[in-house]
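Table S2 (text version). Query chain:
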Amino acid sequence: MAGRFLSLFKPLGRVMPEIKAPGRKVSFNEKIFWTALVLIIYLIMSEISLYGIPAGVKEQFAPLRVIFASNRGTLMELGIGPIVTAGLILQLLVGSAIIQCDMSNPEDRGLFTVASKFFSILLTGIQASAYIISGMYGALEGPTTIVIFLQLLGAGIIVMLLDELVQKGWGLGSGISLFIMAGVAQNILWQTFNPGTGLFVGSLDMLLRGNQTLVDWVVGAGAYPSLIGFIATIGTFLVIIYLEGVRVELPLTYAGYKGFRSRYPIKLLYVSNLPVIFASALFANVYFFSQLIWSTQGRPEPGQNILIDILGQYNATSNQPISGLAYFVTAPQSVQDVAADPIRAAIYLAILVTFCAVFSLIWLEVGGLGPSRVAQQLVDSGMQIPGYRRSEKPIESILRRYIPVVTILGGIVVGLVAGISDFLGVFGSGTGILLAVGIIYQYYELLMRERAAEMFPAFRRILGE
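Corresponding structure-token output:
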């Protein structure tokens, strides 16, 4: 039964915008259609400029754009940030038992979804207001302020519904994953091939046109891509693809079909890329709100405001953090940055790895991936481990030997890969590539599963559907 907190959202369930789950089986081709349509809508919104903002708006959150699938000065200004942040807060509250919620109970799951939507819309409004109040769009008149706020709020609600459309069964995977993957792909192509003004931005363009010295091209010049980053991008892709295949497999037999054997894979990346998404969301909010406070307090000099000194001081010209908490949760973006302040790089990596490990354990229970839940799913689908009776307890005891350890190890590994990739200046950021490869791999497995289930309907029971 839902706890007291979630029960407060029952009345909102009747008025909250919602995409109805399909009342029929959605074919594979139809899922492909809806998924493609959602992606196209997202890409179009990423190119539609906000009405009312002045030209040449200064970029302040460039490192966060890829992670949150956002695009400066467009309807996708906020991207998926409010949705991810709302989900992060609620899942932390559930995982720490501050909020009572049984994810196996349909009523609790429904109320959790309503609460998540409410906080997503609330955070969209808060972030939109913060962007306007902080002067990110310059000095605005009253009516223009309202127009920009409504555009950001409306776009945030549309993104939330697009994600729900995919997750409810009309599409494949999740909308958030789809948007991140598209954003990372755009960023990598942009940094590899894009011609800019004056000095060409794309790494390959700079080589072919000879607009840089060899040293600048290899190690990078300022914010421009480098050969090291280009090679590291390819290397990171290969490393993550390899890690996706590392797993421990437990033998299984199917009670309904004599002689049928299978294996249950416990992947090294058991909870996938979710820990690094949550860690990045947490760091991004520290970055965002510390910069907002610094800006609204008149950009004080170091030593003038203790709170701002703790949260983060920023360079008034580049708007990049130079001290405080925000400085240590922002990744160095190149080899030169790491060499300039190796202590900062070490602290950032330690914080990232720690939070990835913690979020891995939290998601293990919140996401229904714990040993007890998996054991129940295996028994319900007619599977058992050879040599053990067909019941949850023996299967759960065996799973407990592997799942928690693999989960923590996987969280540490994804944190290390994301952090070190950023240090090497990979295109699209280390976190972005980690997310993109993980999402592509998930979609590959999902497509194979959907195709197999459509071709062989009896296979659905084996899959536990």
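Notes on Table S2: Residues 195-202 have pLDDT under 50 and may be disordered. The first strand starts at residue 247 and ends at 254.
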